[in-house]
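Thread: Newbie trying to understand structure tokens

Hi all, I'm a second-year student working on a class project, and my supervisor (Dr. K.) asked me to get a predicted structure for one chain before our next meeting. I've only ever worked with sequences, so writing a 3D structure as a token string is new to me. If someone could post the tokens and maybe explain what I'm looking at, I'd be very grateful. Here's the chain:
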Amino acid sequence: MILKGYKKLSFFASIDNHNSEKNSIVTNMVQKRGLYSYGTKLLLEQICKKRQCAGLFILQRNTKKTKTKSERKQKTTDRRNVGAILAIDTIRGIVLKEMPKGETSKQVIVLAKGLGKIWMTAKGARKQKSKLLAGTQMFCYCDFQAYESRGFYTISQADVIESFFDLRLDMDRLASAIYAADFAERIALRGMEQDSMLLLLLKTFQMLSKKGYSPLLASRIFELKLIQIAGIMPNMTEKCSVCGKRASAYFSGAAGGMVCMEHRSGSKKIADGTKNAMRFVFSQPLSNAFQFSVSSEVLKELDEILEQYIQIHMNLKLGTRDFEKKYKQLL
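---
Reply by user tm_fold:
Sure, no problem. This is what the structure looks like when written as tokens:
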């Protein structure tokens, strides 16, 4: 039986230099039995009596204080309430992507104000009764209460500002919203402030939520404004993008804008309405950029030239861009 509350049983025996047999028996017994059991203590006492060896036993009290039930409970609470130890920040952002993590948790990619693209973990967010269930869904614009650890954030609370729930009620609007979020997630940089992109994404979701507004037009305007923010806006002036001469009605994605007749190889002739629409979006602030409409022919031309331009200058060909065309072919 181990003595509870004692960490060590020390044995001191008198050393008789003239009787090595006594010392060897005691030493062997200590080495074999150890100094921690009560049975060893009794055996050593018997040996000392038989061998006429004076012995002294000392029970050394354990210096480690045994924690009470309330102290253990407080330690468990402190482990769970990590936010009480780590600094909690309020992060405002929009959810671009959500991914499952473990059995009940999820990881979300958020375009945050002042921080750019960040990764956040929401523990237990996939449970039906979780308080984080609503705020960690795609498209949600929230104020997140989170703490940082090694470059990653853990969400403790999510206050929904706008959920953009109406985007989920129409397949066309949902497809355009998924493409906009995917595009922003691909080109956004981690840890770099990109508030202009965040405002553009919010404005696009607001327009997509309006009934009667064309989702395809909203997507094209989003692309035009995004390449303007990225600093790769095409040349829409009256001068050729190659030689600087007077440009004609041809647009070249490889050349980066309008070209003259001499350099029209590989370019596409566009209507005046397409050219005017692109110039209008580039020249207007974000609040007015969506305030116009175009014909179906102009919309088709915008779709073709922007797809080529983005693929050449941004090296991106997103499958979510053609999602609407693909699902309509299946119907």
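A couple of things are worth pointing out once you decode it. Confidence is low (pLDDT under 50) at residues 1-20, 29-37, 51-64. Residues 166 and 209 are 6 Å apart (CA to CA). Feel free to ask follow-ups in this thread.
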